[in-house]
Amino acid sequence: MKAIELVTYLNEREAASIDELTSEFEVSARTVRLHIQRTNEMLEGLAHISYARKQGGYVLSVINEEGFSEWLDRMHRFGDLDGSASEKRITYLINDLLMRDDWVTVASMAQVLYVSPQSISKDLKAVEAKLGEYDLALEKRPRYGVRVRGSELNRRLCLASIATEGVIGSNPFGDETVPQVVKTIAGCIERALEEHPIPVQEIHSFLNEVDVRQINELLRASADMGAGAGLFDPAWFDPHLDAETPHEAICGLAELMVERAGAPAELVELALERESAASTAFGSGLALPHPIRSLPGPTKVCAGIPNRPIRWGDKDVELVLLVAIGDDGRNALGWFFSRMAELLSHEERVKRIVDDRSFEVMMQEIAHGEERS
């Protein structure tokens, strides 16, 4: 005989005599009265079961309709109506305990889940066993309650385990729908990365020295971007720029910006107009072409490494950074030109960028090259 069963039975009728209850649940009158007492403790402030002489039986009186409805819902999810209820509670308890550092009493957990403290105590044995699989312990202290003791890593591993139980190997969508679901998720990820250009580094299942070094380099490269965040993007990088003249280099990079970064089509014409006024090759193998006036939108930089050095006025250029100057203020532009001033004074850093021909190394040298020199 469970609390939810008793409440459901009484909620469906005006009253029920003691004989009806003993017959329905196949228990003694004493057991019925004991369960009514315990159920009233659980329903405190929400409803109350009492004996009504006029009706000649026990009556359920609801005090708080909204709270009582919520109680019924939670009891159906976490109560003992079926064999899976205890498993659901155990999962809930593991999750709750892992997400907190403070003590929690058995009584408070029983109140939240609308079951008896005895049921929680029984569930905690299974909780303790599950935690033990991840070198976590369930610490107990009189009057304080219980809490989980163990490392943050093991907590996260245990959380990941209970989150994936019943998911891995299942296919709620059906084989025919899976490709569309995967396509939709991939599209969401691509849009999110466009809006929030967060660096992504692919690693092995178990970190090795190469993974650690690459992660550290990526963090170093992005940590000091500050106002320069959003200026560069791998999609705006051409490691093998097919150009033999400044005109070809400017046109190639400007067209790439129009196609991939949404830059205005007039960027090509404006950048060529600026170049005709004076050369934008500044030495150290670097050229910084840019439009003769600012364009609508944020400032963006398109980078290209020619297959062969380009004779740019009286200088040889091996790295071209086309700066699409926007109207979004001067913070980003100020950051960029301060970095370029440092790059120009260290020709070996330009050489490292050209030799490696990767976006990651270019960003490392621009953002933190002074630490490498």
TrEMBL record:
UniProt-listed SUPFAM superfamilies: Phoshotransferase/anion transport protein (SSF55804)
Domain PTS EIIA type-2: 230-369
Keywords: Transcription, Transcription regulation
Presence of the UniProt keyword Cytoplasm in the record: no
A matching Pfam family: PTS_EIIA_2
InterPro entries, per the entry: BglG_antiterminators, Mga_HTH, PTrfase/Anion_transptr, PTS_EIIA_type-2_dom, WH-like_DNA-bd_sf
Protein name: PTS EIIA type-2 domain-containing protein
